[in-house]
Specification:
The structure holds two protein chains of two kinds. Chain A is an alpha+beta fold. Chain A is built from 23 helices and 18 strands. Chain B has helices spanning 3-14, 108-124, 150-158, 168-177, 203-212, 254-264, 277-289; strands spanning 49-59, 74-77, 80-82, 84-89, 94-101, 130-136, 140-147, 185-191, 216-222, 224-232, 238-247, 268-271, 292-298, 305-312, 318-322, 325-328. In chain B, the strands form four sheets. Chain B has a six-stranded mixed sheet, sandwiched between helices. In chain B, strands 4-13-1-15 form a four-stranded antiparallel sheet. Chain B has a four-stranded antiparallel sheet with strand order 3-2-14-16, with no helix packed on it. The chains are: A alpha+beta, B alpha/beta.
Chain lengths: 674, 329
């Protein structure tokens, strides 16, 4: 029995985003239909004695929207092409223990075999997409016509499960106006690392434009449960992830009553989620477990015999939840099923006009309001004056997403909010800031392919953690960013910078030189290789050469440093700070090589780039004095003390890596969410 | 003015070296130093380098020993015994440069203690002495040029805003290189926690600068930190259970500070968490004030390069402190 509702997807996207929980979001689809009115289409299945009832007309149906009877504009019984999203569960350990060999190829063959069976049911104009539940949401196969050759992109296993994230991703896939979307998910019901919970999945399902069927893998769950009880025993293996599950496993018996897998509250929520879409939760019958193909077959029969009712809601408020009821009054014996309703989020009321006062915001509501107005400079000014960054972060997390209808804005705002904490000396502030950033690295993760927003978010986050100069904490962020964007030049450079920072952050090296303890050869080689990886990428080659040169200069390898700086000088460099640093470092290297006149020329070139920068003046002062030009040295000393620039000297930010690019990264992020 | 004193004045400018002094020179008063204040420069005589060296002589109780004459000193320049031509004691006016670290690490109540300490220091200055105030975090700023105006110095400290990184080595280098009036002795007092995050000057460069300049460098640095153990009472109140101090951990640049102090004839003064900075600054000034200035013509040694100096007072129970050497071009 099938039912479905399709409302303008613009409304749907807003409704979905209204969930407090963060979910991975697909790219926003185009609006199907809506200008000033919303057209609603409802899939209705009518059966009598288990058989579909055909030939019904609009006047045979009674449809109410929030209790108000609606005029049905059309009834379609024609077979509509469908998009099927299959969700297979590869989490935990299908068919084997977590330890030892995982039969990847065998499992892949089984999945492929099952998918072939599904394809045989579908029609030529239907399409199929395959997702997998695993540590994250894997797209094994994109949405393709059923005639296309099915090739699984990859099948990986690592034991963790993001079930709820995967289901939400499947339900949130956009649907084209002339098609219907069916989601069939088969799962063991285990979840270890999702960013949302089962209640959120239910809320999404209630407003999603998809028919959702859930198939329980009861046998697999029993196997996993038995294995887990062994693995979780601390005296044995002690390998146990904190795991949510939605039913109580029961050891299957060959003889005796059918095992009962009682649903836990999460399971009830998922069952309700499926039913809210007109779908169902499918469980074992006797010793037989439902299969994907079998479930689709049943679903498909319903589709073939279902009607699509179309109406324009009248006499009801537009926003909020709409309860739908469909009946066929002419026969009480008919079984009629349709989805229970749909939700529309009205656009939020415009924010109140900005207060007349130009005082920067101080409280979270003030920051939020200013951010919403686009008063970013005011927000930044206010954040610089925050005295308790931990309080701001906690208020933000407790308050939930202030802009549920605008994907990404919360994540971008979060980066602005953590900045005071990142650079605070208050106890626990950095940890609190990093904890929130770590949470958002999961929340911004796009379900399939990383997108430009995620890329810039990671970049902005990396500039922040580089700026902290706490490489041991920054490592995890770099690793995550590179996992999502392998080979991204700025991330590759970030890896090298963070490793390089270990030397200076540990107090083993002075800012400009002076080593208390030479680093281990393995460490030196690691830094060199990581910088060379960044040198191989055109976007970061110059900066990586300059940084590697400074690293080698610190080790006393001045000739190598000189060669790198000269190479960097042969490349066009648009960034002023890099041109400045190259000349400044060149001067230091030449001093070390006892080429003082050339060093002074290099320092003077640095000064010509940034005439008031302190570091070039001080370097020049020292060099003049060493050469015996005392008057010149004193003149420089005087300039240092008296003629100052409000701008930051690039050298002062050298060890903070790419933090200098944080404003640009944030500007780009804000542009993406505007 | 004796010839050798005249030559030493020249040496401070021409030789790019040493401490120059001119006992009996006319004081310049409380105004900032200007080029016109410098005396006329005599011609440097070739064949010998005129050198002035500050020497502190104390007994084992750190009490200054006064009344010594030229014949009481033995001076060696690069190992060659030199003849001390003249000795002066406590006659030259002093220029004190106080450099305060106003990075994130020096804030609040500590800044207030510093203000009191510097104000008292100005009160201790002699009639001809002057004080200059430098503030530094990553920026090095001369807030007040040489002056005797207490109010301007006090106001500058009150208005100081703490924050930012620390360019300590750069600040030391700038303080040492800053032009000095030849007829005055130079004391530079740095108050800092000893951390450095933003200097472009390396330790080696700074040591070279110290060898080529004439000021005496004294560091006032924390030697201990307070420890408070607290407990939360039943009503949620936080109370101090015990209080104490812990020695400051070794600083990465400690060896450099010792070298700089030794090279310039200065010292390192440790202060505790609640030490009266007034007394500390006073001690730094008194030690510097109770210093002999010895003058000699360096003979029998190559003129250029680094000259190691050794000063002895061949008496029982005497501790002699002088800078280690100078650099002559």
């Amino acid at each position: 029995v099938t039912a479905g509702v399709r409302v303008g997807v613009v409304l749907l996207a807003a409704a979905i985003a209204s969930l407090d929980a963060q979910v991975p979001r697909p790219a926003p689809p185009q609006a199907q239909f809506r200008t000033s009115t919303d057209v609603v289409m409802v899939d209705v299945s009518v059966r009598a004695g288990g058989q579909p009832v055909a030939s019904l007309r609009a006047e045979d149906f009674v449809l109410t929207d929030n209790g108000v009877r609606q005029q049905i504009e059309s009834v379609e019984a024609a077979a509509v092409p469908i998009d099927v999203t299959l969700v297979v569960d590869l989490s935990g350990n299908p068919r084997g223990p977590w330890v030892g060999h995982v039969p990847v190829s065998k499992i892949a063959r089984e999945v492929e075999s099952e998918l072939q069976a599904v394809k045989r049911i579908l029609r030529s104009d239907d399409r199929l997409r395959v997702l997998a539940v695993d540590r994250g949401v894997q797209q094994l196969s994109p949405l393709l016509p059923v005639s296309a050759e099915l090739r699984l992109a990859r099948v990986e296993f690592d034991g963790l499960s993001a079930l709820y994230d995967s289901l939400a991703t499947a339900l949130l896939q956009p649907v084209e106006p002339a098609r219907r979307h069916v989601v069939i998910a088969r799962t063991k019901g285990l979840d270890t690392i999702s960013s949302i919970n089962a209640q959120a999945v239910r809320a999404i399902a209630e407003q999603a434009d998809a028919l959702f069927h859930l198939v329980m893998m009861e046998t697999a769950l029993d196997s996993d449960a038995a294995l887990s009880s062994f693995q979780c025993n601390p005296t044995l293996m002690g390998l146990c992830w904190p795991t949510k599950r939605f039913w109580v496993p029961f050891q299957r018996r060959l003889i005796g009553p059918r095992p009962v897998h009682q649903l836990l509250p999460d399971g009830e929520a998922l069952a309700a989620a499926a039913r809210a879409t007109g779908g169902d939760l499918h469980r074992a019958s006797g010793i037989l477990e439902p299969t994907l193909a079998g479930t689709l077959r049943k679903t498909f029969e319903d589709f073939r015999s279902s009607y699509v009712l179309r109406y324009t809601p009248q006499g009801v408020s537009r926003g909020g939840w709409h309860t739908i009821a469909v009946t066929v009054p002419k026969s009480r014996s008919y079984s009629v099923r349709a989805r229970r309703g749909y939700g529309i989020d009205e656009p939020a009321a415009p924010p109140p006009p900005a207060p007349a006062s130009s005082a920067p915001p101080r409280t979270l509501p003030e920051f939020t309001a200013a951010y919403e107005r686009g008063a970013y400079q005011s927000v930044l000014l206010g954040l610089r004056q925050v005295t308790d960054p931990v309080r701001i972060i906690r208020d933000f997390e407790e308050g939930g997403n202030p802009w549920p209808a605008i994907p990404g804005r919360e994540a971008a705002f979060a980066l602005d909010l953590v900045e005071p904490g990142v650079f605070s000396s208050r106890n626990g502030a950095q940890e609190e800031a990093l904890r929130m950033m770590e949470r958002f690295t999961r929340l911004i993760r796009q379900p399939f392919e990383p997108d430009v927003f995620e890329r810039y978010w990671h970049f902005a986050a990396l500039t922040l953690v580089e700026g902290m100069l706490r490489p041991s904490l920054a490592d995890a962020f770099v690793t995550r960013a590179l996992e999502r964007f392998p080979g991204e030049p700025r991330f590759v450079l970030s890896r090298a910078i963070v490793t390089d920072q270990r030397w200076v952050a540990g107090g083993l090296r002075g800012a400009a030189g002076g080593t208390t303890s030479p680093p281990a050869p393995a460490y030196v080689e690691s830094v060199r290789q990581q910088y060379e990886a960044a040198i191989a990428l055109p976007e970061t080659a110059t900066e990586a050469r300059i940084r590697l040169a400074w690293f080698l200069h610190g080790l006393g390898r001045h000739a190598e440093a000189l060669d790198l700086l000269e190479r960097a000088g042969r490349e066009p460099v648009s960034e002023l700070s890099l041109r400045y640093l190259r000349q400044l470092f060149l001067g230091h290297v030449l001093v070390a090589l006892d080429r003082r006149d050339e060093a002074i020329e290099a320092y003077q070139r640095a000064r010509s780039e940034l005439p008031k920068a302190q570091s070039a003046r001080v370097a020049l002062m020292n060099a003049f004095l060493a050469r015996g030009d005392r008057d010149e040295a004193e003149s420089m000393a005087e300039q240092v003390q008296v003629e100052q620039s409000a701008e930051m000297d690039p050298w002062w930010m050298y060890w903070q890596g790419q933090y200098r690019l944080y404003p640009q990264a944030m500007g780009r992020l804000r542009g993406l969410i505007r | 003015m004796s010839r050798i004193r005249q030559r030493v004045v020249a040496s401070a400018i021409v030789v790019a070296g040493l401490m120059a002094a001119m006992p009996g020179a006319e004081p310049t008063g409380g105004a900032a130093v200007s080029p016109q204040d410098a005396p006329q420069q005599p011609t440097f005589r070739s064949g010998a380098t005129a050198v002035a060296v500050d020497v502190t002589v104390r007994d084992r109780s750190r009490r200054s020993i006064t009344g010594l004459a030229a014949t009481d000193f033995q001076v060696f320049d690069n190992g060659v015994r030199q003849e001390v031509a003249e000795v002066s004691y406590g006659k030259l006016p002093i220029d004190v440069t106080v450099a305060l670290d106003v990075s994130y690490s020096v804030t609040g109540a500590l800044l207030e203690r510093l203000r009191r300490g510097v104000v008292q220091l100005m009160g201790d200055l002699g009639r001809e002495d002057r004080l200059k105030l430098m503030l530094f975090n990553m920026r090095v700023t001369r807030t007040t040029d040489f002056t005797r105006d207490v109010r301007s110095v006090e106001r500058a400290i009150r208005e100081a805003t703490a924050g930012g990184g620390t360019a300590l080595l750069d600040a030391v280098s700038v303080a040492l290189v800053s032009s000095a009036t030849p007829d005055r002795r130079q004391l530079v007092v740095f108050f800092t926690d000893g951390g450095d995050s933003s200097s472009i000057t390396t330790p080696a460069m700074l040591t070279a600068v110290a060898q080529r300049t004439r000021a005496t460098l004294t560091f006032v640095m924390p030697g201990s930190f307070p420890i408070l153990r607290t407990a939360v009472g039943s009503s949620g109140d936080v109370r101090v259970v015990s209080a104490g101090v812990t020695p400051a951990p070794p600083r990465p640049l400690d060896a450099l500070f010792r070298t700089l102090a030794a090279e310039t004839g200065g010292s390192i003064l440790s202060v505790g968490a609640s030490t009266d900075l007034t007394a500390t600054f006073r001690r730094a000034l008194e030690e510097f004030r109770s210093t002999y200035v010895l003058y000699y013509n360096a003979r029998g040694v190559d003129r250029g390069g680094y000259h190691a100096i050794e000063v002895r007072v061949p008496r029982e129970g005497v501790v002699v402190q002088a800078r280690r050497g100078y650099f002559s071009s």
